[in-house]
Amino acid sequence: MTKSIIKLLDVVALTVDLPEYNLYRGQIGTVVELLADGAAFEVEFSDASGGLRLRNGSTYESVGLRPEQIMVLHFEPASPDSVLEMVTA
What we know:
By secondary structure, the chain is mostly beta strands. It has no helices and 5 strands. The mean pLDDT is 83.
């Protein structure tokens, strides 16, 4: 599987449960800081803003995470050159 380079302001999803922070696999956050020369990332998790659930978009957790704990989410089609692999847990 092609690994994405994680950058500042990337939208990411947790790939692991972090019950000590009340965060669970699949929750979505934003990379707000690069740590240790890109070896770790500060990820901010915020409540929904707008839509059916009116919230104020405030941060409920900000956690330092390693690259293997998150995956970058993509909002455009993958390049036709990329090769997809099936990932099994």
